[in-house]
Amino acid sequence: MRCKTSSKFQCGVSAAVLAAAVAAVALATGPGAVKAAIIYSDQFNRGSVGSPVALNGTTPTTDPSGSTWSVNPSAFLTTNGTEAVFGALPSGSTMGAAYLPVTLLGTGHLGTYTLSVTLTPTASSTDSDWLAMGFGSTNGGQSINSSGTEAWALYREDGGEQSFYGGSNGMSSSTSATPGTADTFTITINSATGAASIVDTLGLVSRTFTLTSTEMGNVNAIIIGKYNTATGDAQNLTLTYTPVPESATLGLLGVGGLGLLLIGRRRKTA
User: Fold this and answer.
1) For the chain, which terminal residue's Cβ has fewer other Cβ atoms within 10 angstroms, N or C?
2) In the chain, where are the structural domains located?
3) Which residue has the higher pLDDT, 54 or 21?
4) For the domain 37-244, what is the CATH superfamily, name and number?
């Protein structure tokens, strides 16, 4: 494109802005564009139905960091080749939880985290004990509940579902699915802004909310767990992370946008 202005300086600036625009578009859409990365993906493919293995101490199917599951109490969760099976708790225990580490805040950690897992409690017409998943803290010991989990959802054996954030402050009303029906829960947290959501494929507990920096700072793990005598299984767990673009990248995209605007104006006046 030929520069039609009489000023060489303006032509030079226009050329520089045009180059920035091209670079910005390439950055935003090309192979180097910011994409979601898998932190964990677990199909619970260890063991078999006839010979299950304890989940505790095993590495997820995909785990670039090499982390392992920490289960408390250690023996209530097993894997049978396709799912994690929630079994009986030891006498005297009413809660059990399994953890994988994650950090939401700090340099190199700001971005969007998306946790997804399918839960299927054993069907019951009378039992309201539950399975659960979410973002929380290992400080809760062997529990996933309102005192140590900042964004989570539970699914009861009688079909009841609820979602929570900020401990129990954001508790939703209970809604019911057909007992024994599989439901996939997905929690998304943008740790740069606190914007978050919980959705499920049955559409029973879907909601949006905002977490404080203190609440996000409390999170150091993703968790699956159970209450009391609940049994059932978990399948297809994934945790992905999309980083917030660096300031230099945002600046380049801004210049690129200005460049595209100027190009449009030049075409109108040409």
Assistant:
1) C
2) 8-30+248-269, 37-244
3) 54
4) Exo-inulinase; domain 1 (2.60.120.560)
